[in-house]
């Protein structure tokens, strides 16, 4: 095994010591800013310079801006632990961060060549892939090469969006956005299956998670098949596949669950977030039968699944990788509750006794408040050295 080669002590400004630091910080900021801009655009009818369809911008930025930043930061951190080989830090990590950061602003700048906007935005997934592929290959940790084709698929999905915007293709942007969202679900299925039961057993004394072998063998290929079937557009097949993956996901979560998890907010937030995944599959089955709006299913995945799981993972990983106790303050518990309310309101928005736009603003405001509370607590943690002064 090749050992980690890094400085022994941290500089005073530690933001670029390890991948989770810049991407968790900037990802949380983007969760507030991008959603705030979207609420203004949706309410006013204004548009973004590069995107003719404002809905495309919103979906693109929440997936390729916010969510992919968190995935990138997690992988650039986790691969270091999985392989015991150093992932990018310092100037190389600054460069990867700059690619993501610049891509968020470019669509708003008038006069820029559209191809340049596309190229910079498309570059992020490949540079993250290179950043994790090198340590994986050097350590012969081939099990985790799975994430390279997943990042390649994110690149292709993003390319589908930009090709339509550039006028090169027709009717590819929406498909690309759907592919990207479903890829996030696949990532949650893979990583969640590894870390949620592990964090549960570590975080709640006396709890042992049940892992059903038949579930673990079938759920990842079943989710991949569901992705392909959903893109086919055949409603009957979509309903059947959605029900199957819903059952697999729910049974998997049932094996992890214990009432004791409510003693630890860092555990219940992850399991509650994962619950929104089978709920989303169930709603997808209903949507394919014309019984509910597909937007409701999408936002069960997006606000409930992605929102809660990213918030919970970021809260725990940021503490663990900075040498701090794995305990959250009341402020972060409040953030977890606000995010839960945001998800419930967004998923049930068509059944609330308030106008749709008011429900949208209420859910969005709760989402932003949750991330603001996270930033208040975690900004110092993400930019300052580890509690023990070591590098990381």
Largest sheet: none
How many helices? The count is 13
Low-confidence stretches: none
Q: Rg from C-alpha positions? A: 20 Å
User: Termini distance?
Assistant: 20 Å
Shape estimate: globular
- Listing every helix as H and every strand as E from the N terminus to the C terminus, the arrangement reads HHHHHHHHHHHHH
* Helix content, binned percent: over 70%
**Which percent band covers the strand fraction?**
under 5%
Strand tally, please?
0
Class inferred from helices and paired strands: mainly alpha
Mean pLDDT: 94
- Structural domains: how many: 2
Keywords: Membrane, Transmembrane, Transmembrane helix
Transmembrane segments: 20-42, 62-80, 92-109, 115-137, 144-168, 180-200, 235-254, 266-290, 296-315, 327-349, 355-376
Pfam families: NnrS (PF05940)
InterPro entries: NnrS
Describe this structure in words.
By secondary structure, the protein is an all-alpha fold. It folds into two domains: 10-195; 207-380, no CATH class. It has 13 helices and no strands. Helix 3 crosses helix 4 (114-122) and helix 6 (147-165) packs antiparallel against helix 7. It starts with 19 loop residues before the first helix and ends in a 9-residue tail after the last helix. 46% of the residues are buried. It comes from Pontibacterium sinense.
